[in-house]
Amino acid sequence: MARYIDGFVIPVPRRNLARYKRMAALAGRVWLEHGALEYYEAVGEDLSPEGVAVPFPRLTKARAGETVVFSWIVYKSRKHRDQVNKKVMADPRLQPMMPERLKDPPMDLQRMTFGGFDMLVDMPPAARKKSARR
């Protein structure tokens, strides 16, 4: 099954991680209820150092005291993503989290980067078991 991914990289002040996590947990429930296949949020722990690659902190212009959250949502296709997101954006549970309504957001959305991606390689756990037998 071809799948589609929305990916996000967001700088978040470490002091705001608990608030961000609460928002992300609610958002994840809403996305899954509206049809997303999978929803993930991961906080940076071992990020590439300067000079090795373009580090996530530099990509997002993370400041002292901030880390980076890497998030992705899995859909059946881009069309499915568009259908799910239309429902998600209309869900009243997320309205208080919309950027124009947040008085003190736990992250800086101006430094977030995101995009939609066609799946290039997809190896679910069953595929790993088959390749191990060869």
List keywords for this structure.
134 residues, alpha+beta, four-stranded antiparallel β-sheet, 32% helix, globular
Count of helical regions: 4
The CATH first-level class comes to Alpha Beta
State the helicity in percent bands.
25-40%
CATH fold-level topology: Alpha-Beta Plaits
**What is the overall pLDDT average?**
88
Task: Point out poorly predicted stretches.
Answer: none
- Alpha carbon gyration radius: 17 Å
Could you give a short account of the major beta sheet? 4 strands, antiparallel
What spatial order of strands do you see in the largest sheet?
2-3-1-4
- Globally, the shape reads globular
In CATH, the architecture is 2-Layer Sandwich
Structural classification: alpha+beta
The figure for the number of domains is 1
Say how many strands there are: 4
- Report the end-to-end length measured between terminal Cα atoms: 23 Å
Strand content: 15-25%
Task: Note the run of SSEs as H and E.
Answer: EHEHEHEH
In short, what is this structure?
The chain has four helices and four strands; from the N terminus they run βαβαβαβα. The protein is an alpha+beta fold. The chain starts with a strand and ends with a helix.
